[in-house]
Design a protein that fits this description.
binds NADP nicotinamide-adenine-dinucleotide phosphate; two-stranded antiparallel sheet; Dihydrofolate Reductase, subunit A; 28% strand; alpha/beta; nine-stranded mixed beta sheet; 21% helix
């Protein structure tokens, strides 16, 4: 299962999407809202960097940028860093964000409600500010379909979505996940759940096809293709 050959299959009009995150045995991805929690062991972390290296781009929400300040690189393995993509409707991204690297042409996807001064500041640091329509369901947030169409037009054929909780749930609710890879750490946290509120107007839940689970160091990696009933 951890052999990732032929993992990514072309999708029409959008990139192939792998959703990946790390959770405790009880489904927590953080202990409290807006706090960082290092969960993965070294082997699982290295595996995650292998996954990153397989994808053209990597996406996180502004909540994760403000909390964890991730570099979104593949520094534990040889390979090419994926292009960072950030969901940030108001351009709250600070100029100190570690993913801001002019050579990686990071994309900050935002809406017309964003601050123009911050736009110029981030552009000066190498970010491409992408103005997109808002979601129909939640007008405060970036429309994922519009974003994916843009990434496809930029020849980004694979996208790794790494969190946090709101972003994970948004992609699942929009049925925009092709494969899921969850690192499960043998600990109990009782904190913030990675997946919340998948019930909208439907009783159909995502299932894993060709699901597999493997031990990696002290952790498990659970993975499969996503299908809806
Ligand atoms: N264990 C793990 O694998 C892992 C991985 C990543 C993060 N985390 C944890 O997750 C937590 C952060 O999660 P979070 O839920 O607070 O933040 P998040 O999911 O990283 O970012 C959510 C924010 O992104 C913006 N956004 C814009 N368009 C969106 C859309 N269509 N769908 C969803 N979000 C959109 C919204 O802010 P605006 O309205 O301001 O744009 C939204 O509040 C932290 O505690 C972090 O440590 C854990």
């Amino acid at each position: 299962m951890l052999t990732t050959t032929n993992w990514i299959e072309p999708r029409k009009g959008r990139p192939f999407i792998t959703l990946t995150y790390t959770q405790s045995l009880d489904g927590s991805i953080a202990a409290r809202p807006s706090t960082a929690l290092a969960l993965s062991g070294a082997a699982a972390l290295t595996f995650t960097h292998h996954l990153r290296a397989m994808h053209d781009a990597i996406l996180v929400g502004i909540g994760t940028v403000l909390t964890n300040n991730p570099a979104l690189t593949v520094r534990y393995v040889p390979g090419v860093n994926p292009r960072p993509v950030i969901l940030d409707s108001l351009l709250n991204c600070p100029p100190t964000a570690r993913f801001l690297d002019v050579t990686r042409r990071p994309i900050v996807a935002t809406t017309r409600r964003a601050d123009v001064v911050r736009q110029r500041e981030l552009e000066a640091l190498g970010a491409q500010i992408l103005y997109l329509p808002a979601e129909r369901e939640n007008a405060a947030r970036v429309n994922l379909h519009a974003l994916l169409a843009h990434l496809h037009a930029e020849s980004i054929s694979s996208l790794m979505v790494e969190g946090g909780a709101r972003v994970i749930t948004s992609f699942l609710r929009a049925r925009l996940v092709d494969r899921i890879v969850i690192t499960i750490v043998p600990t109990l946290v009782g904190g913030v759940r990675g997946v919340t509120d998948l019930l909208s107007d439907t009783q159909h839940f995502p299932r894993l096809r060709n699901a597999a689970i493997e031990k990696l160091g002290d952790d498990w990696i659970a993975a499969g293709e996503i299908v809806w009933d």
